[in-house]
Amino acid sequence: GENVEQHPSTLSVQEGDSAVIKCTYSDSASNYFPWYKQELGKRPQLIIDIRSNVGEKKDQRIAVTLNKTAKHFSLHITETQPEDSAVYFCAAIADKLIFGTGTRLQVFP
Amino acid sequence: DAGVIQSPRHEVTEMGQEVTLRCKPISGHNSLFWYRQTMMRGLELLIYFNNNVPIDDSGMPEDRFSAKMPNASFSTLKIQPSEPRDSAVYFCASSTRQHTGELFFGEGSRLTVL
């Protein structure tokens, strides 16, 4: 079955800096890669996703890149703000959606 | 739409007791998922349904866990008997597509087993 690894587990950045979270997956049949953001005590919510026929996707300050050959994908957040502080989960799907272990991002003002 | 509705939001029970968690998916969504979240193991998929039919329950920890979806608007996750290691936040999520659609999560049910 699919296995998703996510790094780093924690990330601290200064407001305005960029943050990068990386994930790898094992099943080459995976074709959909969403990213979810979970604020403290809240539910996970989708922030961006990418499909296997696309190499990069951008939405304002957030971008995701996908390298199918290497089986890894990354989330990039530019010009970070304190409200970006949360836990971010990557996920991959072949026959079912499997989440990475999460990255706790802290943005210091 | 009110979103995915879960109940109870918090449950504290004693070891050995039966626990029933409930979920109402978003109307029109035909896929429903139960996830368990802990600090140690993150978000684990327990079971998912498509059109009320269980598709994959390989994530259910053991026979003490069972899930049903008697109709398109209701699902339950039952633990009997409960154990302290079952303490976690249990999320229900629904989607319009089984595999590649956005998951809409409920607010979760925080279970504490003493």
What is the fold's blueprint, element by element?
The complex is a heterodimer of chains A (109) and B (114).
Chain A: E1 4-7, E2 10-14, E3 19-25, E4 32-38, E5 45-51, E6 56-59, E7 62-67, E8 72-77, E9 86-93, E10 97-99, E11 103-108
Parallel strand pairs in A: 2-11
Antiparallel strand pairs in A: 1-3, 3-8, 4-5, 4-9, 6-7, 7-8, 9-10, 9-11
Chain B: E1 5-7, E2 10-13, E3 19-24, E4 31-38, E5 42-50, E6 53-56, E7 65-71, E8 74-79, E9 88-95, E10 104-105, E11 109-113
Parallel strand pairs in B: 2-11
Antiparallel strand pairs in B: 1-3, 3-8, 4-5, 4-9, 5-6, 7-8, 9-10, 9-11
Overall pLDDT score of chain A? 94
> What is the tally of beta strands of chain A?
11
Query: Largest sheet of chain B, if any?
Result: 7 strands, mixed
Oligomeric state of the chains? heterodimer
Q: How much helix, percentage-wise, in residues of chain B?
A: under 10%
Please give the count of helices of chain B.
0
Summarize the helix and strand pattern of chain A as letters. EEEEEEEEEEE
Shape of chain A: globular
Task: Pick out the low-confidence regions of chain A.
Answer: none
Structural class assignment of chain A: mainly beta
Largest interface: A-B, 22 and 17 residues
Note the total helix count of chain A. 0
Provide the residue-averaged pLDDT of chain B. Answer: 94
Largest sheet of chain A: 6 strands, mixed
User: How many DSSP-defined strands of chain B?
Assistant: 11
